[in-house]
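Subject: mismatched residue count in predicted assembly?

I count 667 residues in my input, but I want to confirm that the predicted structure covers every chain. Input:
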Amino acid sequence: MSEEISVMENETPDVQPSRLGELLRTTREQLGLEVDDVARQLCLSPRQVVALEADAYSDLPSATFTRGFIRNYAKLLQIEAEPLLAMYRSKVPDAPSLSAISLHTEGIPIQTGNRGSWLPYLVATGILVLAAAAWWFYMDWRESHPAAVEPAENVAAPAKTESATTPVPLQAQPEPAPMGAGMQPEQLTEPAPNATLAQAEPAAPSVPSASPAPAAPAVPVATPSQTPSAAVPAPSNAVAAGIARVELKFSESSWVRVMDADGKELLNKTKPAASEEVVEGKPPLKVVIGNVNGATVIYKGQPVDVLSHAKANVARLTLE
Amino acid sequence: MLGFLSSYFSNDLAIDLGTANTLIYVRGKGIVLDEPSVVAIRTEGGPAGKKTILAVGAEAKRMLGKAPASIQAIRPMKDGVIADFTITEQMLKYFIRKVHESRMFSPNPRIIICVPYGSTQVERRAIRESAIGAGARQVFLIEEPMAAAIGADLPVADATGSMVVDIGGGTTEVGVISLGGVVYAKSERVGGDRFDEAIIDYIRRNYGMQISEPTAELIKKNIGSAFPGSEVKEMEVTGRNLAEGLPRKFTISSNEILEALTAPLNSIVGAVKSALEQTPPELGADIAERGMVLTGGGALLRDLDILLKEETGLPVIVAEDPLTCVARGSGRALEEMDKLGNVFAYE
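Triage response: the counts match. Full output below for your records.
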C-alpha cells in the first residue's frame, strides 16, 4: 500500500518536501517505519496514515482531529510539529475555523393531545369577549359624554327629522302662519292660504271679541307688520278699513319689493318661479319687480298692467 | 449602533471558575484574565478579629505556604466546586472589577460560568449565587465537558460522537457529545491537585521528607509523566526531613513520579474506560475513528495522551492550548449566547 503511494508521489512534480504528506512519508522512511507500524503506534487505521501522507484531508476527520493526528505523527517521528501545522494551515485555508456549537432548530412545537381542536374555540371566545367589552365601554363612554355624541346623532337622523318635523310645524302653525301671511309668506307656498283660511274662522270670533272696534282705528296705523293677529282677520273685513291687498304671482323667478305709504318695507325678496305672494298694507303701495315678464300683479282684485311701468324689465309702480 | 451600546453597558463575561485557575473571557475581547484561584486574607487583632482581603490571584498564590499567622492564603475552590462561599464571592468580585477597571458604573454583566458535570444542585446553586453576589445581572451555567468540547473546536452540533477528557485542577470530566448535547459524561474528583497530593505522599513515604504543595506542583510540571518514556529526568528538591526536622535537598527522578502518580492516573483511565463502556456503539465508532481530545491543565502532563492511547487503543489528541479550552468554549457560548439555549445547564 505504501508502495502505491510512493509511486503516486514520484509522479507529482514537486520534489522538495514542501508537501506535508511527503515530509511525513520521507521522515518515516528514514526511520525505517512502515505505514502499519505508524498506524499501530498512533492507534490509527493504516487508511488514515496513508491519507495523511497523501494530503487527502477529505478522507480524514475535521480539522481539529487532523491537526491532532499531525501533531501525534510528528511526535512519533520526533520532528517539530509546528512547521507541519503551518503547512497544513496553508494547505487547507478554507477549513472551517469554527464548527457550529448548537443545533439549528426549526422551532416547531410538538402538539400533544387534542390541543389543536379547542384552540380555535378559545380564540373565538376571546374575540367575542373583547367585542362585548368594547361595546360596553362604548356605551358607558357615550352616557358620560352626551355632548360629543350629538353631532353623530344629527348625522344619523336626517331620515328621522323628515317625519319628526312635520308634526312640529303643525303645532306651531297657528302662530307662524298668520305672521307668514303678513311678513314672510315665502315659507308658505301651498299650505299657507289653507292654514290662514282654516285659521280665519276660529280666529275671527276670538279677535273681534278682543279688538273689533278699537282695532279699526288703531290697527291700521301700527299693526300690519307688527301684529299678525290683527292682520289675519283683515283680508275679509279690513280692506275697507284702509288696508290694500296685493297679490303677486310669479311664473319666473323674480325679485320684488313692496313698501307701504309710511315707507315701511313690507316685502323684499327674490321669489322662485311658480310661486305667489300676498301683501297687505296701507296704500299707496310702492312696488318694484325685478323680472316683470314673469310676474302678474293683482291689486284689490284687479290685474295691474305692470308691463306699462316696465323699464329694462324692471317695473316701478305705485298702487293707489 | 445598538449593539455597540449594549456591549458598552453590559460587557458580558464567561468565567471558568476552576479549582486551580480562574479565567475570564470578555465578549469581543477574548481571555483577559488568567489568575490562580487563591485569596490571601489578613486577620487583624486575633483570631476573631476583622478580616480583610490582602491579595487575590497570582500575588496571593505566592503567599501560599509562606504566610505568617495573621495571613491566610486560601483556595476557595475544591474539587471543582465552592468550598468557601464568601471567599469565592469576594474573589469573583475582585476579578470582575479588575476586568472592568476603567468603567464609570459598577459592572453589571451577564455571566456564563462553568460547573463540573457531576456537581450537585447545591453546588451549582452556590456557584450561581456567588456570581450574583459578585454583581452578575444574569447567570448561565454551562457544564465543563460541553465548554471544553466547544473550546477544543469539536463538531459538537454534528450527529457524530466526540469524546472530550478535561483534566482540571480538581476534577476530570469525561464527556461524549453529539447533536449539541452531552450523551454521556462522568466526573471524577481527580485532577492536578490530586497529582500534587500523590507526589507529596510518595515523597513523605519513600524519602521521609515533607514538601509543600507549590513544590509538588513544580515537580509535576518539570519531570512528571504519565507513561514510561525513553528519557529519564531528574530534579533536585528541597524539603523538610521528617526525622531530623531540618531542610534537606534530595534528587527525584521522573520514573519515581510516574510511580507516585499511578493511583490518580488509574482513576482517570478508569473514568475514560467507563465512559467508553457506556457510550452507544454508533458513537463509539465515531470516537474510534477520530479519537478523544484531552483538554485542561492535566493534559499537559507529559505522555498522558500516550497512556490513554495505550490503555484504550484509541487515538488521543491533546487540544491546542488545553489550559484555556474551557474558558474559550464558554467564551464562544457567550458570543453566540443569543443564538443558543440548549447548551446551558440547569441547576
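Chain B touches chain A through 33 residues (CB under 8 Å). Marking this ticket as 'not a bug'.
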